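Good morning C.,

I know you're traveling, so I'll keep this short. The sequence:
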Amino acid sequence: MAQFQFRLESILKIRERERDNRRLELLQAISAEEILLEQAKSLDAQQKRLQEDLRAATRRGLLDVDQVLGYRRYELILAAQRDELARQLKAIREEIERRRAALLEANRALRVLELLRDKQRERFLKNAMKNELKQMDELVNRQSSVDGDAWAEC
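The tokens, ready to paste straight into the viewer:
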């Protein structure tokens, strides 16, 4: 019996690779987002420590103006870093959505070819079974006609 061969197998393989590449790109973007979120946690922890240090310095009674100004400058630096991080997070989240949409499209394109392959395979198998049954019927008919001739000679 002949084997089924999908004529678009090479295109199917290309679409599988494309889907895998889109999946990898999405995972990379998600990984970048996780790194940015870790940086945001670090900035929040630095901000919290700064506020605690400033409170502790004001409780002691004697305020060093230079020290307070240093705290405020550092606070401004942290705020600027947080703003930049927020901008980067917004951009990476937009990129994640773009990559997620590209992955969905690659999955759809692949699924279309897989469905086509499955339908063609099913059609091939039905035809092969039909042909096999036809050959068996012909063989039985020939055998019965040979047997019938043998009986007729007796």
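Safe travels,
E.
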